[in-house]
Here is the input.
Amino acid sequence: MIPSTMKAMVLTGHGGVDALKYQDMPVPEPAPGQVLVQVTATAKNNTDRKAREGLYPTRKGEMQSFQMGGKPTLIFPRIQGADIAGRVVAVGEGVHESRIGERGLLDFNIYTDDRRDINLTPDYYGHGADGGYAEYVVLPSDQFYHIPNPELSDAELASMGMCSYQTAMHMLTSANIQAGERVLVTGASGGVGTALIQLCRIIGAVPYALSQQDKAVPLLALGAEAVLDRTDMDSFVDRVKEATGGQPMTAVMDLVGGEMTDRFIDIMIFDMNARSTYPRLSIAGASGGNISEILWTRIYLYQVQIFGVSHGTREEAEQLMAWIRGGQLKPVLHGAFRLSDLHHAEEYFVNRGSNYLGKIVIVPDSQWQEHGKPYALIDE
Ligand SMILES: NC(=O)c1ccc[n+]([C@@H]2O[C@H](COP(=O)([O-])OP(=O)(O)OC[C@H]3O[C@@H](n4cnc5c(N)ncnc54)[C@H](OP(=O)(O)O)[C@@H]3O)[C@@H](O)[C@H]2O)c1
Here is the structure.
């Protein structure tokens, strides 16, 4: 029996965590082509916080969120939460009833056309339409992928959500990363970084992690060839040479930006005679600062190719879902919070300790015992 109201965490405007209100909302009804999903877990992304705080300027001094299609799509009130795992409980017109009961994971994009190989106006569930910080959500049926794998809990499945994994994949495909290439992954312990390390190994590339030394053991276990400490950037080139046997890094998958960008170029160009391809920098995040100073002469004389990356394509989501089903990708789940405790989760996320790796997930209170409690970060 589907209720008429549900608990949801509603974003009421740009601002701090106080802008998030836990309240009753109507359960949405699936339109033609949609499924109604009972949410069991939704992974937290840095993107939620940045959208809430309006930290996606495309000109200096702006405070805004995504509007690549020409107009703002983050309309308040909005339910955030992009990486949704759950079960289909009802279907809209045109969707076969056999889908009811399916456990699945969302391809989080709001696509504006049917193209499978390009996504020019990135937007997503939890931003341009309601997302998973609620008990129920309506989603396009073709973007809610059936992932039956019994070895994966719902919380683990949510932790493999597309916001991190598809972005990571698109960083690699944009830069045309090939087997055998040496790839520096920055922000390596985060959601996108841990996805990048795994994806490099799947395609046969060799990932080097830039992180903090106390995260070295789990990053090596995840597949990193070596872990470089980001707290000592003065000796960075020497440490890269040591790790690679003197070879330049083929490419950099960057989530950090800021003052480090110039160092990332250094490690690709220090010996151009040793290279057989152009240096390539994919950038999808700027956790270390949104402004970098770079000499353009360095970029064009060394022919550094720079790829800006937001989200990815239908094709990439489909491939990733196949790898999840096939067991090639593993969850990196740090822990879970109750939906009603999202304010606390947001603070925990920003002030995370040195043991943090991968993702945290948010579980509706009504699903907590089964799907959240085994991963609880707070003693109850
Ligand atoms: N373009 C897109 O489509 C897209 C999609 C998803 C995310 N993003 C962005 O990509 C970035 C990473 O996302 P995420 O979800 O992986 O975030 P995350 O889980 O918060 O991880 C970010 C990681 O960056 C490192 N870091 C944080 N502050 C830093 C600093 N000041 N200097 C250097 N390193 C720092 C930390 O890793 P270590 O401790 O291991 O160094 C941290 O774990 C974020 O900026 C996010 O907004 C973009």
The chain has a mean pLDDT of 95. The domain at 165-308 is CATH 3.40.50.720 (Rossmann fold). The longest strand covers residues 34-43. Residues 45-47, 50, 163-164, 167, 187-193, 211-212, 215, 230, 255-256, 284-288, 309-311 surround NAP (CB under 6 Å).
